[in-house]
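Example (one chain per record):
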Amino acid sequence: MSCLMVVQAEITDPARFRDYTAVVPALVARFGGRYCVLGGATTRLEGTGWPECKSVVSEWPSREAALAFWHSPAYQAAARLREGTGRFTIVLLDGIDEPKAPA
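Predicted structure:
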């Protein structure tokens, strides 16, 4: 089953954050992930639960692949580059293999 990694990022130090973004895309690809959303504009349609921030969504072949990326020594080294550059919320969501038809 596919898996989505969703990141909400409020960047406070864009210059230092660029060091992180220079390294991570190649790691995402190496571990089988692909970006679906990469910081595009957000329009809140309803509610108050989604902060005004940048969003990143990556798709992975499986939860195991996403976790292998996350826990890899290569990513853990890269993650240190974003320390102190903002506030981040990162979650994994199980995807669906085939879209469900409306009931």
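Caption: The mean pLDDT is 92.
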